[in-house]
Amino acid sequence: MSETKRGRILMTGAAGGVGTFLRSGLAGLGWQVRGFDLVVPDDPGRTEWLVGDVGDAAALDAAMRDVDVVIHLAGIPVEDRFERILKSNIDGTYQVFDAALRAGVPRILTASSNHAVGYYERADFRDAPIGVDVRPRPDTYYGVSKVFVEAIGSFYADRHGLQVASVRIGSCFAEPLNRRMLDTWLSPADATRLFDALATAPELGYEIVYGISANKTAWWDLEPARRLGYEPQDDSDVFAEKIAAAEDQAPDPEDPEYRYLGGRFTTRVPPQD
Ligand SMILES: NC(=O)c1ccc[n+]([C@@H]2O[C@H](COP(=O)([O-])OP(=O)(O)OC[C@H]3O[C@@H](n4cnc5c(N)ncnc54)[C@H](O)[C@@H]3O)[C@@H](O)[C@H]2O)c1
């Protein structure tokens, strides 16, 4: 571990899947983590905990005190009706940025997603990986909200000088769950390495990075993250045999799961309830 000083992180959505990995990983590197979520997890561990809604500006003002870095994960992580996405992911993200600005927090790392660019086709990136500078091609209302997350980060960086990174997270789980995730997997340990690198990078203006491990089959460009100090150490290849045994059919390149960067999200419709 480098000698870089670690301070206090405010992590929204800290009770969720990614938050649970990052809370313990970043605390292990010396960060003091303050969790902010609608719920308290079963085991908050060493995390200081605040229950609140990212739509609540006063609750965010209290949460931002003495914070060095915000990691904004809170929101709906799948397709949903636009009104719900609007409240949780779009207005909620605006509230987090504005509260950070009011409090003078210098750096925000946000969870964008591969679904901000989900309509890109794998067949078009055989010779070179897909870069972070492609135009947005969201695959859902959820993906649209992630384009907003990237856009407000860029705006607050340019207008207010905030240091911002948007992480287009692939699939952050303990292990890849299917064949697509062999390409898109972000191991919990690499997620910690990536967010720690972004939190400590000496120079940060506005950056978009892909958040995946060093997977042999990956087709997303990791160089922008590596330039900021990310050194992934995991590779989904160790799970390839297990997944091949579970999915014995060869993948159909026309199946949206394999055709598009966003996989099956390109066919999702919002629930009607
Ligand atoms: N898990 C992945 O592989 C993946 C991939 C791409 C992007 N992401 C993004 O990473 C983030 C975390 O994803 P996750 O898989 O951990 O999701 P998750 O649903 O497990 O966690 C989200 C957390 O946010 C909290 N939350 C929701 N609305 C809130 C609100 N209004 N105020 C406060 N807290 C609220 C929830 O209670 C939950 O604990 C999300 O923004 C998601 O879109 C995740």
What does this structure look like?
The protein has 273 residues and is of the alpha/beta class. The protein has one domain: Rossmann fold (3-Layer(aba) Sandwich), CATH 3.40.50. It contains nine helices and seven strands, in the order βαββαβαβαβααβααα. It has helices spanning 17-28, 57-63, 82-103, 141-160, 180-184, 188-200, 223-227, 240-246, 256-259, and strands at residues 8-12, 32-37, 48-51, 69-72, 107-113, 163-169, 206-211. It has a seven-stranded parallel beta sheet with strand order 3-2-1-4-5-6-7, with helices on both faces. α4 links the parallel β5 (107-113) and β6 (163-169). α1 packs across α6 and α3 (82-103) packs parallel to α4. The mean pLDDT is 96. It binds nicotinamide-adenine-dinucleotide (NAD). Nicotinamide-adenine-dinucleotide is lined by residues 12-13, 15-19, 37-39, 53-55, 73-75, 77, 88, 92, 111, 113, 169, 171-172. Nicotinamide-adenine-dinucleotide (NAD) is lined by residues 12-13, 15-19, 37-39, 53-55, 73-75, 77, 88, 92, 111, 113, 169, 171-172.
